[in-house]
Amino acid sequence: MSEPDITQVEIDAVNRVLQTPHLSIGPVIDEFEHAWARFVGARYAVGVSSGTAGLHCAVIAAGVGAGDEVITTPFSFVASANVMLYQNATPIFADIDSQTLNIDPNQVEDKIKSRLRAGARFKAIMPVHVFHQPCDMDPLMEIAARYDLLVIEDACEAMGAQYNGRAVGTFGKAAVFAFYPNKQMTTGEGGMIVTDDTEWAQLFRSLRNQGRDENGTWLHHIRLGYNYRLDELSAALGLAQLSRIDELLEKRERVAQMYNARLRGMPGVQIPFIAPQTTRSSWFVYVVRIASEIDRDAVLRELAARGIPARPYFTPIHLQPFYRTRFGFQEGDFPITEQVARTTLALPFHSNLNAEKIDFIGETLSQILDSRRSLQ
Ligand SMILES: Cc1ncc(COP(=O)(O)O)c(C=O)c1O
User: Fold this and answer.
1) Residue 58 counted as domain residue
2) Beta strands in 114-264 (DSSP E)
3) Structural domain of residue 267, as residue ranges?
4) Site to substitute for ligand 1 among 73, 76, 156, most atoms within 8 A of C-beta
């Protein structure tokens, strides 16, 4: 489905760290953090061991605790909602826009109003920029201001994307990026939190380092903390990848455009939608939608049988077994999310996918769809 884009630059960078005594809490993470803050346009960046760890720290900084509610999307990776549960808070889902697949600001406001009438305590909104495209941030920021809520951006899938010319990660009080190997750039495992707030940045440094004070004093713990540190090897890999970020994003853009050209107009396939506000996409995955009258799961199986991995993406969070059991969610609760989720198909996607492979994938998909239609 995906593969990282690693060159000699990255190998040399990691090797250099291996020749030093500093494999964690050394100088390279500082350099990576400064470079990342510059890349996003934020004052501070704090490296952490994963995107999930970063989201957890951001939720803690927002003061989210037992009994609080945070509004987010059911159409995301499960970590976006799990971090509320880590704090004994409750994720409240609002349905998505059927075209952008991001949280729908109208649904957010309706949900906030109805939950407030029921006596809920809201702390924050967590918009998730899914796949390649920023959320509709202007109305979301207005709603947040109207109800005095903090915004934490889950930007784990959208590094470098822009909304009306402004980078994701610069809207919320904090934002989190992730570097798992399927992402636009990788550190192996890893993540980065950005914020303009000095106190929040200090808190993130403490939280990731077992609750030590801002100087990292060895056995002195001033709060409940975690081991969410990003090691030096990962930071070196990240710094080397970041030095190539424009190239990496451009390569992915080229692959997405090759897919678009191959699949546009193919009966039964809808290529990814780009909202006018998305002034720069950052392609994490390439997800098409299959016409609802075609059995998407059968298409997935037939692609797999012909050697092409593809995935349904996402399975809604509220329909995950754990969420159904814990909260009693069922089908029909978020109809747009569910309708979209039944039709999505993520195709193999990485920066070095060539025209020949894309042509083969396009041709195979076309044949499968033709044969499925003739069965109807
Ligand atoms: C939207 C979203 N949020 C959070 C995460 C969690 O990031 P990580 O896997 O680095 O913990 C991911 C990663 O896959 C993601 O796609």
Assistant:
1) yes
2) 121-126, 150-154, 162-163, 166-167, 174-178, 191-195
3) 246-375
4) 156
The set of residues, in sequence order, having a beta carbon less than 8 Å from that of 207 and lying 6+ positions away, is 57, 60, 61, 223, 225, 226, 228
C-alpha dist (Å) from residue 243 to 49, 91, 289, 335:
20, 36, 34, 42
- Tokens encoding 131: 């796949």
Crossing angle of the two packed helices 355-375 and 245-263, in degrees rounded to 10: 40
The atom number, within ligand 1, closest to the CA of 50 reads: 10
pLDDT of residue 217: 85
According to the model, what pLDDT value does residue 215 have? Answer: 84
What are the pLDDT digits (tens) for 115-154? 999 999 999 999 999 999 999 999 999 999 999 999 999 9
Which CATH number fits the domain that encloses residue 304? 3.90.1150.10
130 CA closest ligand 1 atom index: 1
Six-digit token string for 287: 């997800």
Low-confidence ranges of the chain (pLDDT < 70): 376
Domain contains 318: yes
Could you tell me how far CA 204 lies from the centroid of its own chain? Answer: 19
Q: Which atom of ligand 1 is nearest to the CA of 128?
A: 1
Same domain for 229 and 261: no
The pLDDT of residue 140 is 98
- Residue pLDDT, tens place only, 247-261: 999 999 999 999 999
CB 52 near ligand 1, within 6 Å:
yes
- Total-model pTM: 0.97
User: CA 178 to CA 280: how far, in whole Å?
Assistant: 18
d(CA 354, ligand 1 centre) in Å? 27
Q: Are residues 25 and 62 in the same domain?
A: yes
Same domain, 223 and 128: yes
